[in-house]
Write a structure and sequence with these properties.
Structural class: mainly alpha
CATH class: Mainly Alpha
Strand order of the largest sheet: 1-3-2
Number of helices: 6
Largest sheet: 3 strands, antiparallel
Order of helices and strands: HHHEHHEEH
Number of domains: 1
Radius of gyration: 19 Å
Shape: globular
Distance between the termini: 49 Å
CATH superfamily: Winged helix-like DNA-binding domain superfamily/Winged helix DNA-binding domain
Number of strands: 3
Length: 139
């Protein structure tokens, strides 16, 4: 089969485009609401996401800057700067890793934990259209 025929057979159909459009629309609505929630609390959406990823990291209540960079899909140096801004705001603290002194653990402060839980509760109400988030349909 020629490459042009292969490309045509892989092109999305109308149903695919409609599904992608609805997904992007719902995602954009959620991101707008998330931005409003974070901004009303006096932080940016990136700061909220950082708090969420620190506390939501699987298996432990902290994360490294590298892990946070991956979760945020951001450069490590930009993530380190974001951690610094959150640290200045009293939301997180850095601790050297006991096993690997090259690694730095990022932990929430009690203030950061309270703010995260407050904002996460507000966000959770808006996850309804994303049924896969909680699996049980809980809102």
């Amino acid at each position: 089969m020629s490459s042009s025929k292969q490309a045509k057979s892989k092109l999305p159909g109308k149903q695919d485009l409609e599904a992608m459009s609805v997904f992007r629309y719902e995602l954009r609505k959620f991101l707008r609401v998330s931005e409003e929630i974070a901004n009303a609390a006096g932080i940016t959406t990136l700061q909220y996401q950082l708090l969420l990823h620190v506390r939501g990291f699987t298996g432990r209540p902290w994360a490294t800057v590298g892990e946070l960079a991956e979760r945020l899909q951001a450069a490590p140096n930009g993530t380190a700067a974001l951690v610094s801004r959150c640290e200045s705001a009293g939301l997180v603290t850095r601790k050297p890793d006991a096993d690997d002194r090259r690694q730095v653990q990022v932990h929430l402060t009690p203030t950061g934990e309270r703010l995260l839980l407050k904002l996460a509760a507000e966000h959770k109400a808006h996850y309804g259209s994303f049924g896969w988030v909680f699996g049980d349909g809980a809102q």
